[in-house]
Amino acid sequence: MSSTTVVSLRGSNVSFKVRSGFGQLPEKILLNIFQYFNEDELRKNIIPVCQQWRTVAENPRLWKILKFTGMSTNTSVICFKIWQLNKAEEIHMKGIKQPLVVLRQICRCAQNIVSISLRHCHEISEDGLRHLIVSCKSLKILDLKGTPFKSLIFYEELACTKNLSNINISENIYVTVSHISSLVVNCPSLDGLHISSFQPINRIFITDGDAYFFLSHISKRLRSLSLDCSNLSTGSFSSILGCKNLEYLCLNFAYNFDGNIFQNLWKTLRKLKALKIRYGHQISDANIKNLFQNGRDSLSNIEVIDLTGCSKLSNFGIAALAICCKKLKKLILRSCKNVFTIDYILEECHDLEMLNISFCKNLQCKYQSNSISLKIMFLSDDKKVIEVGNFLKSKNNNLQLKLCESEHNKNYRKL
């Protein structure tokens, strides 16, 4: 409090105390202010200020998304936060120490949760997952990428989940085609299916017949799809492009994706916001150029493009992409070894935040402007790639440079 003196009409001085500074605002007003900050901003910028701000910022009303990462994160802390911030709608966990303990806490304290992501954790039991889907009736998204679990009846019991619409079981060594078949049959609301790069123990991969069966059940309502395409042929790719409501499409190891089919995908997939075609060796630079030139109106809302390992992509395709996709936020050109410049991208895509040019060994950059929207760049330990990264960082000192370790995994470190 500070003291303010006012001179009245009669000449007498009247002193009274008034509040000054944000630190003296009532908690109700602080709560209304803090609601405009996201969870990361609350954690980094608000909570450390003072005890009063910390108390207000930890109000459960402000925390809709919780994130926990790494083996060093104490399990008891995670469980306490789930109990304390029990209004959360999404919980994201990656590589945590005791995932089953945390899942039990979610079942007890966060039964209204809408989205759960449990990625790259130790093997979990089927019973824990069964208890989760029974307890959390509002669950819409279940992401278990890289977290293995064996299943006897879990996929059949998904029939009781009226709201579950999106599931990710990628990189689970125990997944079989039979499991996926049960999944698509038993999930009545499923509109998102992610099973990319899975390698079952008995090495059964998705065939054209399998893909036809899956798509026949969910194609009309499918909005997001990630699929391992290493064994698929032309007919399957045509069926995938017939899913007209797709907003997110990720096709891994698309070795057999015919370029002529690819360049016409704009005719059916008019709602796309994310397009990821990896290792499309049959897709030529001309196919990519035709796609983005002819589909300029249909594909103008795309925000994410990943063309990892598309070996025939070169500067002409990149130029057409840049002119078409003005709203692009993420672009991955990893291992596109015939791309020689990213100037077109920097000149046209002013909302671009993330760019991956790792293993593009012949790259150059002569971008003249000092205005760069980029926040993160992924590089590789190649002289020219490093030079491009350092050149752009000289224009934007806040640009984060990260070094990819290998073409065969996604590990990286800060440069």
TrEMBL record:
Entry keyword set: Ubl conjugation pathway
Boundaries of every F-box domain copy: 19-66
InterPro entries for the chain: F-box-like_dom_sf (IPR036047), F-box_dom (IPR001810), Leu-rich_rpt_Cys-con_subtyp (IPR006553), LRR_dom_sf (IPR032675)
Gene3D superfamilies reported in the protein's UniProt record: Ribonuclease Inhibitor
Annotated coiled-coil segments of the chain: none
One GO term describing the cellular component: SCF ubiquitin ligase complex
Keyword rRNA-binding attributed: no
GO biological process: SCF-dependent proteasomal ubiquitin-dependent protein catabolic process
PANTHER family: PARTNER OF PAIRED, ISOFORM B-RELATED
Protein name according to UniProt: F-box domain-containing protein
